[in-house]
Structure formats: structure tokens, C-alpha cells
UniProtKB/TrEMBL annotation:
Its EC number is 5.4.99.62. Keywords: Carbohydrate metabolism, Cytoplasm, Isomerase. The keyword Transport does not apply. The keyword Isomerase applies. Coiled coil: none annotated. It holds the Pfam family RbsD_FucU. GO terms for cellular component: cytosol. It catalyses: beta-D-ribopyranose = beta-D-ribofuranose. This is D-ribose pyranase. SUPFAM superfamilies: RbsD-like. It comes from the Bacteria. GO terms for biological process: D-ribose catabolic process.
């Protein structure tokens, strides 16, 4: 029985399949569904869990080399929110792109973890190192 780290068996299975240069999406509650990729929905209620909580848990056991986010995240959120994401993504080169271009990356991902986050455009594509 697992007693530490990520306890969710579906997320553990998904993470174990992420290899060099594969991508993983962590998304907010309003992010579209793509039937062609595995989606693990862990949303419970508004903001439980958040994208940042999932990101911190995933980064504790995985190595990522870069991240992509929609430019709209930076345009629509206040400085404290942007700073919290900057801190959680420390050390990862960040690509900002229009939301429509960002969404074109999603079908190539190994999977998507959907959260209950209500932060606008709080979605990211993490690329494994």
C-alpha cells in the first residue's frame, strides 16, 4: 500500500508512462475534453484541488524540462497569482502562446489531469526532460 507521494492509482499509472520529451497536461475545471487522450478528472468542488497543488505533487516525483502556458493566463490574472505560478514553475523554461495555439499541443500529450481550479487559463503542458 502506498503511504506517501501521489496516492491516486490512475495518476501514478499515467506518470509512469511519461518518457523523455512526452508531455502531460494539468488543467483547470473549464478546460475542454479531448476523447483521444487519457483524462483523469480529480475535480471535487471549486478550487479543490488546484493546478498548483497538482503541479507540486507531480514535480516531486517527475523531472520536466519545460512548460507551456497560454498568454491569456498572464493577461487575465493578478500579480499574486502569476507570482505563485512562477514560484511553482521555478527552473522550467516557459513558453507563452495564444490559448488557441496552446490547445493544439494537447492532443499529443500522454494524458491530462483535470482539477477543480477556477483560476482563468491555469492550464499547462509540461514536457518531460
Amino acid at each position: 500500500m502506498l503511504t506517501s507521494g501521489i496516492l491516486n492509482p490512475q495518476i501514478n499509472s499515467l506518470l509512469s508512462r511519461v518518457r523523455h520529451t512526452n508531455t502531460l497536461v494539468i488543467a483547470d475545471r473549464g478546460f475542454p475534453y479531448w476523447p483521444q487522450i487519457e483524462t483523469i478528472d480529480i475535480s471535487l468542488v471549486d478550487d479543490i484541488p488546484t493546478v498548483l497543488e497538482v503541479l507540486r505533487a507531480v514535480r516531486a516525483g517527475c523531472v520536466f524540462g519545460r512548460v507551456a502556458m497560454a498568454q491569456e493566463f498572464f493577461d487575465h490574472n493578478d500579480q499574486p497569482t502569476r507570482s505563485a505560478f512562477d514560484a511553482a514553475l521555478e527552473g522550467l523554461p516557459l513558453t507563452r502562446q495564444p490559448h488557441e495555439a496552446f490547445k493544439r499541443r494537447v492532443p499529443n500529450a500522454i494524458g491530462l489531469i483535470r482539477t477543480g481550479d477556477t483560476t482563468q487559463y491555469a492550464n499547462m503542458v509540461l514536457e518531460s526532460a
